[in-house]
């Protein structure tokens, strides 16, 4: 049989899936310019994939040497293979454990509400122990007790603070990936261990080592901050401030310390009045965390604080936060209202100028856990 007796069906037949086998020893017609089979011109990549034509064109079969495959066909094959690896968008209907998919705060919280945390719950101390005059003073002049119906929710918050980061848990990994992507603007996954976490303000290549005293709650708070459209702007502003060439500080370490302050405020019943008023615990703790972080950033920027001031700033901030939680929450409300109008930048403070600096390993950061207890009414243990 000669070459003239071999033929392909037209494009329409190819698109309808009616492709006949090429005669053995016969070659399809080629374009003289680039040696691409004329019959395949104009076909979508998906059609080539469906009929295994790409594989046939790039494999040595029926005497057709791979050396004659055109660059166009090889490029089409590479593009199709790349399409196979593209992850679905965040809003797709893909499975929640699909790699590369962002995770919302509510989805991550639901994970902890459904898994068995009994071993961690045994470790919590819901309220601090007071004795003597401290107990009497708190009874007479202290905040009200948390309503009975809210105590289970409070215990869940404290239990999550006892959970560590498990790199083998896909939900834990998605939380880390989401925080990284939202802060950096990256569209791609990153390794769960590596120097890139230092750029976000962790002390080392493994974020799990920095969660002392706050546990996974610290990561949930960061997730809450970056997954809300209004607080995301705040998170990005604070992140930029943390990379200021003079006022830089480790962003994630600072956030973890704010979470520790929120935990202590909850255990010392400083948030009970607001929780009772709203009949919620988790939203109040989240807002308190965000408001405290906002206050710290405002102080840091307007008072020109540097890393050497971190311990003093956190100590004073803790006292203020526990004494006037409602005042902090009101400040956050004002800020978010300004955000909705496109006016907010730390309550009108000037934007920091100067080049941004990467996180430095030489930063000496003093956190809440590094400070000595300043009150006989509580301890730093959770």
Short description:
With 382 residues, the protein is an all-alpha fold. The chain is 48% helix and 0% strand. The chain contains 17 helices and no strands.
Question: Care to describe what's here?
Answer:
- With 382 residues, the protein is an all-alpha fold.
- It has helices spanning 11-15, 45-50, 53-58, 71-85, 105-114, 118-121, 132-141, 151-160, 170-184, 196-199, 217-227, 229-242, 251-267, 272-278, 282-302, 310-323, 325-340.
- It is globular, with a radius of gyration of 29 Å.
- The protein starts with 10 loop residues before the first helix and ends in a 42-residue tail after the last helix.
- The model is unreliable at 3-15, 17-27, 56-67, 83-99, 347-354 and 372-382 (pLDDT under 50).
Q: What's the helix and strand layout?
A:
Layout: H1 11-15, H2 45-50, H3 53-58, H4 71-85, H5 105-114, H6 118-121, H7 132-141, H8 151-160, H9 170-184, H10 196-199, H11 217-227, H12 229-242, H13 251-267, H14 272-278, H15 282-302, H16 310-323, H17 325-340
Helix pairs in contact: 9-11, 11-12, 11-13, 12-15, 13-15, 13-16, 15-16, 15-17
